[in-house]
Design a protein that fits this description.
single chain; alpha/beta; eight-stranded parallel β-sheet; 13% strand; binds flavin mononucleotide
Length: 367
């Protein structure tokens, strides 16, 4: 039978990216894929995994493998979650609802972005799977409080406060494209509020108005403490790079951190997150849960992150590629693919349980 009658499904997450590039229009594709400035960190996030080598154990019974784990007490079917990313309706019409349903189908967790094009209400209504909410802190603290209380009431299970973006990193592809949200789409959580702010700043794109005029550049540890004082939800700080900050997060009693450089979109030339993980994991020493994102594209990457101290990882762009290629089905297929790769990598590493991914599996290529 000629191979042509079969659809040529992507075989890897990078093939999903390639295909997405052929279906998205240029400004949307560029917005999703770009990093800040010279995109050195963007590339480094991927390169770093190639320098890490695996040392598999032999003659281990791997007939049955268990990928399930818990994150802040929540059981998920694999140590892979969906990172908060903006504007899913730019990738497919059902946007964040398609993503939430893909997460539910794969029994994992979605972190909904503050920059979603669907309201937290609509997303919560579309799924019975667990959701976390990614929060930015607004200058207007009443607005911040209202958003927190809304998502609490809707049953979101944790707040993930992003702390690496006091301002938007400069992504030169977006500047060149004069990127703005396509007509009809909006930052849904704060839609009306943003429209008012934009009326006063007619010359700027909504994204710039949002970051510069609505978000608070003066946020400190005091403000994240304040959030803890007004919410019962567990709190995770996303965007930790340094051991001293990780220790501070422990001392302030936060529940988790995400070692993240925002997928290379904020401060360029920061190290790959996987290279930051070992020392942060040593410093934290089990006192809070450590998650990691940035450049996870293969099952072997997942194993490496777990072995070096992450409880689970998150994937950002690959979900957007899946949405662009096939909406709900595409995002589900991406999750399924990375799950299957992780399962196979576990078998070949000689581990049958995610807790068996330990540091002794890891080596570093020197040349
Ligand atoms: C298009 C895009 C939009 C993003 N939007 C947000 C956001 O709204 N909030 C946030 O905390 N992180 C955001 N991020 C960062 C992701 O949460 C995550 O840190 C990053 O995508 C992980 O790297 P990866 O894309 O290589 O998997 C965004 C990333 C991308 C690519």
């Amino acid at each position: 039978v000629s191979g042509d009658i079969y659809p040529k499904l992507p075989l890897s997450l990078s093939e999903y990216e390639e295909l997405a590039g052929s279906v998205l229009d240029k400004p949307a594709y560029d917005y999703y894929r770009s990093g800040a400035n010279d995109e050195i960190t963007l590339a480094e996030n991927l390169q770093a995994y190639k320098r890490i080598q695996l040392y598999p154990r032999i003659l281990v019974d791997v007939e049955k493998r268990d990928l399930t784990t818990t994150v802040l007490g929540q059981e998920i079917s694999m140590p892979i979650m969906i990172a908060p990313t903006a504007f899913h309706k730019m990738a497919c019409p059902s946007g964040e609802i398609a993503t939430a349903q893909a997460a539910e189908k794969n029994q994992t967790l979605m972190v909904l972005s503050s920059l979603s094009t669907t309201t937290p209400e609509e997303v919560a209504a579309s799924t019975s799977g667990p959701l976390w909410f990614q929060l930015y802190i607004y200058k207007d603290r009443d607005l911040t409080k209202r958003v927190i209380h809304r998502v609490e009431e809707l049953g979101y299970k944790a707040l993930c406060i992003t702390v690496d973006a006091p301002l938007l990193g400069r992504r030169e592809r977006d500047v060149r494209n004069t990127f703005s949200l396509p007509k009809g789409l909006t930052i849904a959580t704060v839609g009306d509020y943003l429209e008012k702010a934009m009326a006063e700043n007619a010359k700027n794109s909504s994204l710039n108005v949002y970051f510069t005029n609505l978000l608070d550049q003066s946020v400190t540890w005091r403000d994240v403490e304040w959030i803890r004082s007004i919410s019962e939800l567990p709190i995770i700080l996303k965007g930790v790079h340094r051991t001293d900050d990780a220790i501070r997060a422990v001392e302030h009693g936060f529940d988790g951190i995400v070692v993240s450089n925002h997928g290379g979109r904020q401060l360029d030339t920061v190290p790959a997150t996987i290279n930051l993980l070992p020392s942060i994991s040593d410093a934290v020493n089990g006192r809070l849960e450590i998650f990691l994102d940035g450049g996870i594209r293969r099952g072997t990457d997942v194993i490496k992150a777990l072995a070096l101290g992450a409880r689970a990882v998150l994937i950002g762009r690959p979900i957007l590629w899946g949405l662009a290629v096939g909406g709900y089905e595409g995002a589900s297929a991406v999750l399924r693919l990375i799950r299957d790769e992780t399962d196979l990598a576990m078998a070949l590493c000689g581990i049958s349980n995610v807790s068996e991914a330990t540091k002794d599996l890891i080596g570093y290529r020197t040349a």
